[in-house]
Amino acid sequence: NLVAFMTLTSHKLGDRAIAKGDEVIAVAAGFPTTVNPIVQFGAVPVFVDVDLKTHNVNADLIEAAITPKTKAIMLAHTLGNPYNLEKVKALCDKYNLWLIEDCCDALGAEYKGKHVGTFGDIATCSFYPAHHITMGEGGAVFTNNSKLKIIAESFRDWGRDCYCEPGCENTCGKRFDQKFGGLPYGYDHKYTYSHLGYNLKISDIQAACGLAQLKRLPDFIEKRNSNFDYLRERLSTVLDFVEFTEPTKNSKPSWFGFPITIKENAVMRRADLIKYLEQNKIGTRLLFAGNLTKQPYFKDIDYRIVGDLVNTDITMNQTFWIGIYPGLCQEQLDYVAEKFEEFFWI
Q1: Which pLDDT score is estimated for 175?
Q2: Radius of gyration in angstroms for the set of CA atoms belonging to the chain, rounded to a whole number
Q3: Which of 11, 20, 141, 257 could join 42 via S-S bond, C-beta 3.0 to 4.6 A?
């Protein structure tokens, strides 16, 4: 996410470059790393509320948040469930905004027959060990814009201006025949830096792991989705007490987890259910930061909220999720369901 966002701050993008103080629309119900690059650069996140059925941005609230200072929309597909890309992309086109798709939990998900990550100007994917595929760590940036590709590679590679592939030199034929900044004419282009960049390259071993994992991705996705569907049916016995997420209309999720929200009228508390599940060796996770604006580190950060964050707060207080790892078998999923039923005295 850092590389993708910083790419859109490059001076090479002219007036479309995101500048310090510009606004980027996001949601507070998610993982910090979708928002942190905005803050770290000095732009201002503008939060709108989410839809409780999908746990994604409520796309109907976005237009009211757009101002002359808005430069981009940066959103994650929550737990593998695509957000309404049709509405979000239409707003980006209407107001000439960048769209950054965070696909860290949604590799392989589709919206209207197209993969997520192919709608935005730039998109990201994570290879953290728990995600759909892994290289041990790291991630990827996607774009079909050749200019953004070169800029993203520059930020990844120390900010270097040279775009030669590894092992190649002087592919432009002008390595010692150009003038940049205050450097002397002919200064080696290989050691000319046009961005304040990073060293975020993966190793060959990581790449080999990723290529091997890609071959297994279709099976991983199929099993995750199968586990999701099985749990949804098997846990229907507890629907008096909890609500399950719904796939976004016109989407084919690539589920990362199984979100559960305790109903407001339920007498049981989320904390009690989570403790019971953990005591029975069933791991749980909250929906990441819940409401980022309530996190300790956000205390002195400059941000803006449009409307209210009622559903974000419900997510913070009442939602959690359980895993659907492709290695889980039916016996294990039945065990999970049985423990839910025991807790709710069913």
Answers
A1: 95
A2: 22
A3: 20
Give which of 339, 341, 342, 221 is closest to 284, Cα–Cα.
339
Q: pTM score > 0.85 for this model?
A: yes
The confidence score (pLDDT) of residue 165 equals: 84
Cβ atoms 23, 44 nearer than 8 A: yes
User: For residue range 157-176, what is the model confidence (pLDDT) as tens digits?
Assistant: 999 999 988 788 999 899 99
- For the question of residue 132 being annotated catalytic, the response is no
- CATH level 3 topology of 217-343: Aspartate Aminotransferase, domain 1 (3.90.1150)
Q: What is the pLDDT of residues 121-153, one digit of tens each?
A: 999 999 999 999 999 999 999 999 999 999 999
CB atoms within 10 A of CB 264: 9
Considering 131, 132, 189, 195, which one is annotated as catalytic? 131
**Helix, strand, or coil (residue 120):** coil
Assess contact for 142 and 182: CB atoms under 8 A.
Answer: no
Closest by CA position to 78, among listed 99, 51, 97: 51
Burial call 321-342: b when 16+ CB within 10 Å, e when fewer: bbbbebebeeeebeebbebbee
Q: Give me the DSSP letters along 129-144.
A: TTSSS-SSS-EEEE-S
The pair of structure tokens assigned to 315 is: 């997510």
Pick the CATH number of 2-156 from 3.40.640.10, 1.20.272.10, 3.90.1030.10, 3.40.50.300: 3.40.640.10
Reported in sequence order, the residue ranges of the chain that DSSP labels E, i.e. its strands, are 23-27, 44-48, 50-51, 56-57, 70-76, 98-102, 110-111, 114-115, 122-126, 139-142, 242-244, 251-252, 257-262, 284-286, 304-305, 319-323
Domain ranges of the chain: 2-156, 217-343
Structure tokens at 43: 């732009």
